[in-house]
Input
Amino acid sequence: MKKITIIILMMMLSIAVGEGVSVYKIWSPYDSPNSPIMHVDLSEQVLYIGIVNKDSYEHDVVVEANCDGKTWRTGVISLPPNSHIEKIVEVRVPISDDKEHDVKISLIEDGKTIASTTVKVRQYFPIDVRNITCETSYKTGDSEVCYSNWFDITLKSNPTAKSDYIANVWIVAKDGNNILYDGKNDNKTVYIPLGGEVKIPFKIPKIVLDKDRFTIETHVEVMNVSHSIEGIEETTQKRDNNGEIYYEYKSSPKYYYLPVIIKNVELYNKIDENTSKMIRNFYRSAQIEDEDIETALSDPYFQKTTSFPRYYVKDDPILAVLKITLENKYNRDVNADLTVKYKNTTIRRVVGIDKEDEKVIYLPIYVKKGSYSINVSVYPSDLTTLEFNKIYTVNVDPQPISPIIVEKIILPKDKNIESLNKLGGSVIIGKTYNMTICLKNIYNKTLLGEVILSDKFGKGVVNYTQKVSFTAPPHKIVNITIPITFHKEVNGDIKIEVKANDAVKDYITSAHFYAVSPISIVRVYYNNTLLLGRVNIINGSGGVYTNKPVAGFNNTCIVILRNDLNSNITCKVWVEVIDKQGKVRAKSCVKTIKLQKDSEGELSFPIFFNEGFEGYTIVHVIPSSYDRHIDLLYTEGYGIHPVEIPQYYEVGRYSAVDILGNEVPTGTHVVTEVIAPILITHLKYDKDKNAILATLENEKFPVNLTVYYWIIAKNWSSSIYSVNLYPKSSKEVLIPMNLSSGEYNITFYAKVDNFALYNNTLIPVILKKSIVVNISSKNINKNNENNTKIGTTEGNVDLKSAELESNINEKQIKMEEKNNTTTEKSNKESKKEGSIFDTLGDFFKGIISIITGFF
Output
C-alpha cells in the first residue's frame, strides 16, 4: 500500500513540475508589454522579461533567445518557491538587420523547456535614407528624369540614434526583381554624426533597360547590422495621449526615368505623305510596275486605300515600313541616337525630339514574308550610359500580287451580230475565232508560266486550247492568241488563269462571250390535215382520231426558221426522228432555203414511219456560208418527257431554252408520238423451223384487232396470214420460208384495216420491219435488228414558196376484204388468198398537227 501511495505522489509531482513557472511579461526600452512588436536599439539589443514561480519548490532555469538559427543564453537563474514577485531578466536578441523577426524565448531546466513564448522584434536603425537624387535630372512629382549616371545619397541620423556612427554604404539599381547594377563592391564608408546628415555621390555604370524607369536600393551597414531601402524613408519621434514617446516610420518608392525611350514599334501599312517617298524610291529602283501603287502615289491627297506591303515572287525581299514612336521625357530638346537591328541589317539615325514631346519616324526595312524580331535602342547623343533597348516582334504579312497581269483581252466580234450590242465577245456558233490575251510582266525579272482556260458550260459546248505556255521578259507585253469555237449558244464567261513560276499569286480574270446561232427555229410541228390516226373505237364503226404522225404513211413536218443575222444566209435543212434510246427511226429529205436578214422562212418535209414509237423530232440546219461543215441542232424544249440526246450531236442547241449550255439544263423536250395500232418485235429467222418469226403486240388499242401479215424478199412474197390480238396482248407468228445459203433482205408487213382516216375515208395502215439474214455454213444471222435504210433527196425552196404541198405516194397498198373471217387457232396460221401486190395502190403523205375528231 505504501508503494502505491509513493508512486501516486511521484506521478502528481511529475505532472505539477513547471506548471507554476511562466514568462509573465516582455517589454523593451521603447515598447510597453502590450505592444504587438518590440523594438531594440542598434547598440543595445535587449528585451526585458518578467518570470514568476508559483510552485512550492525552487526552479533553476536558463533563459534562451532564438532567432533565425542564432541563439543567446543566460546563466542559471534560481527561482525561489511560491514567489509571486517577478524576476526581471535582461535578454539580448541575436539579430543583425532591421527586419522584423520572430524571437522565441524559452525557460530551460535540466535540458528541458518548461516554458516558452514568441515575440516579434525589430531593430531600430539609427540612419535614414532621406533622399536619392540624380545629379542632372528633371524632377516630376516624387520621381526624376535622369540625364546623368551620378546619384547623390543623403543619409541622416534619426531620433533613435544614440551616438555618432560609421556606416558602410552602397547602392543597387533595380528593375523590379531584375538587378541592373549591384554596387556592393563599390561601397563607401562615411561618418554620420548624431543628429546630422551626409551626402554621398555614387556613379552607376551604363544601364540598358527595356522599360522606361528603374529604382535604386540603398544599403547601409552600421555595427554589422545591415539596412536596405528601395526608395526613401523618415523616422520621427512622437508622443501619444498618455505622454509616452514612440517612433513613427514612413517609406515611399522613388522612380528614375530614362530621358529618351521607345514608346511603340509597329508596321505601318499605309501609303501617305509619311511613306510615299520611300515607297516611290523602292518601286523605281526595284523596277516593279505596280499600277495600284502608282495610282496611290499620284494622288496628292492619298485618299485611295491601297494594300501595303505587297509581294510578287517567292523568296524575293519586299519593302515594309516600321513606325517608331520616340518619347523625350526630359525638359529640354534632345538629339537621340536610334539604332534598329533585324536579321543582319543595322540602321542608325539621329533624331531630334522636342522637350517633353514625342517624335514618330518611319523606317524602310527589306524582308520576306514572316515574323521578325526587331531590336530597337535609343539614348541621348551626349549620354550613352542611359539606354533604352527593347526587342519587338512584327509579322510581315504582305498582300500577294501577281507579277503577270492581263493588260487587256481582245475578244472577237462578228460583224454579222454587232447590231445585237452585247458586251464581251459576240460570235456565231460553229465558227472559229481568235481571242488574244495580252500579258504584261510588271516585275524585274523574266518569268515563265502558262495561261489556263476553263469554263462551266459543259462538255462539247466550246472548244479551245486549255493551256498555253509563255515566257515574259521584264516589263514586256506578250500576246497569246487562242482559237476558240462555240458549238452551242451561250451567254457566259470563260475563266482565264495566269500562272507564273514562283509567283505568289495567280492572276485570274474572265472573258464574257455571247455565242448565238445564225438560225433560230421558230416552230416545229406535224401538219396532217387530211390524214388522221385512230386511237379509240366508238359504237363499232366510229372512233376517236388524232392528227399525230401515223406509221405506214408519209407525214408532213413543218419547220419555221428565222435568220437572226444582219446578213443573208443559205441553209440546208432536214428532219430526223429518234427514239428515246437515241436511234434514228426516220429521216426526211434535205432541202435548201435562202433567208434574207432578219426574216423567217417555212419548210415542209414529208417523212415516213415504218412503225409506231415515241421519240423526238430533231431539226438539222447547215448554214452554207460557213467555212466548214457545221450542223446545228434543235428540238422543242417545253415538253414534260426527259430525253438524252445522242452523243454524236456535237453542234447546236438541244432545246429552245438552253441558252447557257449545261448551266441551265432543260431535260425536257416535246415528245413525238407516232401512232400505230400494233408493234412488231423480235423479228428473226429460225433455221430449225425454216420460218420467219415475229411477235405482234397490241399495247394501246382498246379493242380486239385483226392483223394481216406477210413477208417480201427478193423476187418472192409469202401468202397473207391473219391473227386476232386482244388489248394488252401479244402473239408470236410464223411464216414458213426455206432459205439456202446467201444474204437475204426480208421485210415483214402487218396490216390493220380501218385504222386511219384519209379525207373522211377509212383506210388500212400497213407497218413494216426489215432484217438482213445471212445463211452460211455456220448458220449465223447477220442482223436481227431493224435495219431501215433511209435515203435522202434534196429540194430547193424559195422564201416565196416556203409552204410545201403534200405529195401522194405513187403506190398505195390496198387491201380488199370480202367478209372472210379468219378464226384464230393456237400456233396455226390460216392462209389468205391473194398477194400483197394485189393490195398496192396510191398512198399519200402528210404531216400531223394535233387534231382530234370523232367519226
